[in-house]
Amino acid sequence: MSTAHLPRTEAEQLSGNPAQRVEARHQQGAEDASREVLQLLAPDGGRRQNSTFSPFAEALSSAQLRQFYRDMALARRFDQEATALQRQGELAMWVPMVGQEAAQVGSGRASRPEDYLFPTYREHAVAMTRGVNPSQLLGLFRGVSHGGWDPRQNNFHLYTLVLAAQTLHAVGYAMGVQRDRAAGLTESPAVLAYFGDGSSSEGDVHESMVFAASFQAPVVFFCQNNRWAISVPFSVQSRVPLAQRAAGYGFPGLRVDGNDVLAVYAASQWALEHARSGAGPVLIEAETYRLGAHTTADDPSKYRGSDEEEQWRLRDPLLRLETLLRAEGHADDAFFDDLGQEGDQLASDVRREVLAMVNPDLRASFANVYAQQHPLIAEELAWLEEYEAGFVTEGE
Ligand SMILES: Cc1ncc(C[n+]2csc(CCOP(=O)(O)OP(=O)(O)O)c2C)c(N)n1
């Protein structure tokens, strides 16, 4: 049927372009919902009040506030060094997280040592709050390791490159925790699963949320909405803020200013306590921004404007915490100067440790496939050895 003679609505008459009308509706919706974003530390460095969440932030000591800043500053310095290493050909690729420090440090610091965290591949600052040596994060990107650290040492799982797969692992783990608790084997750990706005479109996220809700699993889904899934903007991933999706599964969703470390910490503490208490899952959407490229193989100027980046630079999570620390007298120039030196020392340690990494013995991979000897593996190993013996070595 042709629509040429159908009566046009008032909105259609105002704007002949359907795409523009949809975009206008989205923007209106986003503006309305933005009033509900939890913020406890405004971009100007001033505190904001919220009856539920402020108590978590107000309980923080001077030392803890300084620790948050230190975590963010060292993670940023580490990230810059890793980018430099990649540019010098020492890493095959790097996944920068500059801009997302508050979302990562606030949530990481809210977790307890007994909690178990499942990252994607950009959670370097979270890893550092859990005590993972930053150099170990680089083995994967240098190509000398399939992982780089022992997840059980810090209850921080290996990076997952298959988007959203770890949300299923996290829920399975949380269901295991639930059973351990029922059997009196553990106290009450919670599970934290990280994923991005693009990953929210994966079926795995939907399945994991259905299972988590059905089984009341003690898991917190933590989405860093950094606005871009490589070159695809958030507006393509969802018609509503992601936090609103939680209602459809039947658990709470919190929408948080992801560049506000106090709000992220408070929301994460609240959510982890909720999960630990047996009340079931929570979804946190931390609204933040990836200031750099998706990876060092990507050029964001091809798909987004520098004006957008500039707007987000004004919301830098480090600057606003620095303003608070100085205004409330928690830190002075000496603190920031010392931290600068500590960052340079960290960067030089990381560089030294990365350059000293040795290539793994390929044979070790064959030893880890099955718990016991398997004829197929033995056959493949024999083939490899014969193949390598076929090369003439230098000097022969
Ligand atoms: C299952 C799967 N599909 C596609 C990809 C390719 N891919 C890698 S990163 C990425 C975008 C991810 O965006 P988001 O989840 O928002 O996380 P971000 O990288 O922005 O932190 C895509 C599509 C992948 N790694 N895994």
From TrEMBL:
GO term, biological process aspect, one: branched-chain amino acid catabolic process
InterPro entries xref list: Alpha-ketoacid_DH_E1_comp, DH_E1, PdhA/BkdA, THDP-binding
Stretch forming the signal peptide: none
Cofactor: thiamine diphosphate
Dehydrogenase E1 component domain boundaries: 70-337
Listed PANTHER family: 2-OXOISOVALERATE DEHYDROGENASE SUBUNIT ALPHA, MITOCHONDRIAL
Name used for this protein in its record: Pyruvate dehydrogenase
Organism of origin: Psychromicrobium lacuslunae
Origin organism lineage: Bacteria, Bacillati, Actinomycetota, Actinomycetes, Micrococcales
